[in-house]
């Protein structure tokens, strides 16, 4: 099967001398939902900029569905839809003008573009606003407009650079659902996000980039299995002063909740058994932090020579 | 040009024309008012005291130059402001990520600038009819000159926008270069009125050739050889188009 994205030895040094990428290798399978994560300034946006021909690379090779950016640029661009981090549409144009013009740049005839505009603006809940100026939209609507615009030429690879930044949770969930649906329909998706639960929920494979290098590239499942220890917060009906949790490191948070570090091998049953024996009822339980977030922080800090 | 590119070109043109039509109060009305003032002051009030210029009434003589002046400034300003805004708002990225060849981007923006320049030229022509009866000596020369001139200055506006980093940068060239060259380009006087040295110097001003070729189309009179004038305009177009293509291909001001 052709790779949706094949990056080899990608380097980028800006004129200022800043080394943004130092030899990235990355492969994304066709049909994948792939997370590209990294702290601010790690090189994610530069990588996306190079793939989408907005940034000139210094060295290396990039292929989109087998089309080399150096020799088959137009064919490569045709496969690609980009949802950038910042709003980059003309704020004075209507939604319909924005999406229909964008389709036109890809050679989509106007009649077809109008049909697609109805389809994608409709699916993203923007059809009623099609004659509104883009500047009149809320932040969430603008984000959805960016997605609709990127889909107008029906790309095989969709790159989303923090698509849900600043979007409320309800809308974010509906956007996740939409992205899942188009992925199931065969669109390969690369997602960058700072909401790690978003990446964990949506993506099957993941790469973590830091200081211009890939420090982890594996399946989400394999990565999460590396997490040796998780911290849970338990809300209790009462917290006796004499509470004992043998074999566990735990901390009292307030009169009704504790924080317990749990080694993956130990499991949660012994905690419940001990609490039950002490007549303490567990009302609810949650992870202190997202699992991926913990791993992400560990990996990045480890790469920087720090320990948690 | 294949069908896909044609659709892309059409899309850029539609976008550009829609843009200046949407803000017609800023793009179409001001030149109409300015030129009407020129017609009233230079044509009717002062012109009647000046008398004839090379056998034509002063009003007849300056009308082609004034039309050309509005074509030049508007085709330049349209592309300079539109392309710079697209850079500034980053919506030029819509085009850069799409499989649109760079020459289509250049032609699209230049076409938009030409459309505004020619439309303003038409408006000014219609307004001039209230002040003078226009005779047409050679319609083909009029059309050819206006098309070539608007193309040349639209290209100039594009190059200006590529280099511009702030909104101030797109008004420097029109203020300090275009306006003086236009005023000294034989719009208001015949070059034959100038002393010998200044006549020779004026021949270095490219706008002289455009104004005179255009005037020839109306009056059948030109201070310079018509074919030389057209050759100069075409020569400048080739140079500026090549330079604009070089800038866009290199991604100067567009890609990091």
Described by its quaternary structure, the protein is heterodimer
Number of domains of chain B: 1
Note poorly predicted spans of chain B. none
Q: Could you give the order of strands across the largest sheet of chain A?
A: 6-7-8-3-9-10
CATH topology of the largest domain in chain A: Rossmann fold
Average pLDDT taken over every residue of chain A? 89
Poorly predicted segments of chain A: none
Q: What would you report as the Rg of chain A, rounded to the nearest angstrom?
A: 23 Å
Coarse shape of chain B? globular
Strand content of chain A: 25-35%
How would you describe the shape of chain A? globular
Give a count of the beta strands of chain A, DSSP E runs of length 2 or more.
14
CATH class of the largest domain in chain A: Alpha Beta
Say how many strands of chain B there are: 2
Mean pLDDT of chain B comes to 92
Largest interface: A-B, 36 and 30 residues
Helix content of chain B: over 70%
Overall helicity of chain A: 25-40%
CATH-wise, what's the superfamily of the largest domain in chain A? P-loop containing nucleotide triphosphate hydrolases
SSE string of chain A? EEEHEEHEHHHEHEHEEHEEEHEH
Q: What's the architecture of the largest domain in chain A, going by CATH?
A: 3-Layer(aba) Sandwich
Membrane topology (chain B): Multi-pass membrane protein
Domain ABC transmembrane type-2 (chain B): 22-251
Protein name (chain B): Transport permease protein
GO molecular function (chain B): ABC-type transporter activity
Could you characterize the architecture of this molecule?
- The complex is a heterodimer of chains A (308) and B (256).
- Chain A is built from 10 helices and 14 strands.
- Chain A has 308 residues and is an alpha/beta fold.
- Chain A folds into 2 domains: 222 residues, 3-Layer(aba) Sandwich (Rossmann fold); 78 residues, 2-Layer Sandwich (Alpha-Beta Plaits), CATH 3.30.70.
- Chain A has a 6-stranded mixed β-sheet, with helices on both faces.
- In chain A, α3 crosses α4.
- Chain A is globular, with a radius of gyration of 23 Å.
- Chain B is mostly helical and 256 residues long.
- Chain B has one domain.
- Helices cover 76% and strands 2% of the residues of chain B.
- A two-stranded antiparallel sheet of chain B has the order 1-2.
- In chain B, β1 and β2 form a beta hairpin.
- Chain B is globular.
